Input
Amino acid sequence: MENLIVFAILLALGYGVGSYRERRHYEDIKRREKQTLHIPMMNFGAKQPMPQADDCAMFAGSVVIASDYFKTFTASLRNLVGGRVTVYETLLDRGRREAMLRMKEQAIAWGATEIVNVRLENSTIGNTQRRNGQAAIEIIAYGTALR
Output
């Protein structure tokens, strides 16, 4: 019975704190995206001409985001029946946007006027297959800044 009470408390705490922190992170991301909106990001194919630039440099932004206890529990239940794991979709969305913002902010500090050929890579950190496994993802955004 004690284990069930501890589990319920952790679940409620994970939901409450996780939701609050996620909401705050999204507010921060939206604010920073508005500040960096003036720097366009675009991808070019192999046979397309690149824009003229006096200088260029590669920039990368990376972030590691961990899942809260509630999301981990909910995803475990979803794994039993299959289907979309929507609780992790916000985790990936926040990670991608944060990594791109970090890359853009570094490029802006350098004096970039645009960023070309942006790529995203992600990986899972930790053993999520174990019963007590904590899900965390690392996302890296990188691209070539021009000025």
Notes: The mean pLDDT is 86. The chain has one domain: 2-146.
